[in-house]
User: What shape does this take?
Amino acid sequence: MSNQSSAAAVGAQAQAVQVYVWELPVRVTHWLIVLSVTILVITGLYISHPFVAVAGSATNHFVTGWVRVIHWYTAIVFDLALLARIAWMFVGNEYARWDQFVPVCRERLRNLLETLKFYLFLRRWPPEVVGVDALTGVTYVLLFLLEALIATTGLALYGVSAAYDSVMRPFALLVPYFGGLETVRWIHHVCMWLILAFIPYHVCTRIMVSTVERNHLIDSMFTGRKLVRRELVQAADGR
Assistant: This one.
């Protein structure tokens, strides 16, 4: 960034105000999903290809069994956090609402196009928004669908191995709808890698926008507050 651009960015930051964008449920569910995905990936890879060898009878150490238990209880946290985040799209503030993720109005469609131009290096600055930009919102919708699919296939896999009198056993009925048990496992595995592929994209784009706009975007997932130009906030309030 040139000295002139840096000065302009600093000047814009001086005219900015703090806006409470991400409410506590949004931040809590975000970090619960991050933590649970980390644990689920590690334990899931172990279940698929055990990489810890323990001498002696399995009845004495039960390593794989404990890994499965951790995987299952972490999956419960993941599922509940995902459901809570989706529910908050309908009861949260204006920055958490579903229409921030599904571009149903002309303004959001225009923002999606302009944001895409920024990531394709066709424009120098990203279009400013108070909450989440439209392109990121659409990406989150795809991520939520992917997470819902991995949760559903995970429940189906657990249902197959559950006891016949378990409340989880009925989830085994989902298996035929996916084309069989091996297909369910394959979908579950592919979804994991797709989510892993999303992580570097998500981190890099958030750092890029935070660096260019100097809006404390990264910090806002801890504090809930972003730095936004006063004129942008006034324009949003006047809609």
Remarks:
- Residues 181-213 form the longest helix (33 residues).
- The first strand starts at residue 16 and ends at 20.
- The chain has one domain: 3-237.
- Residues 117 and 123 are 6 Å apart (CA to CA).
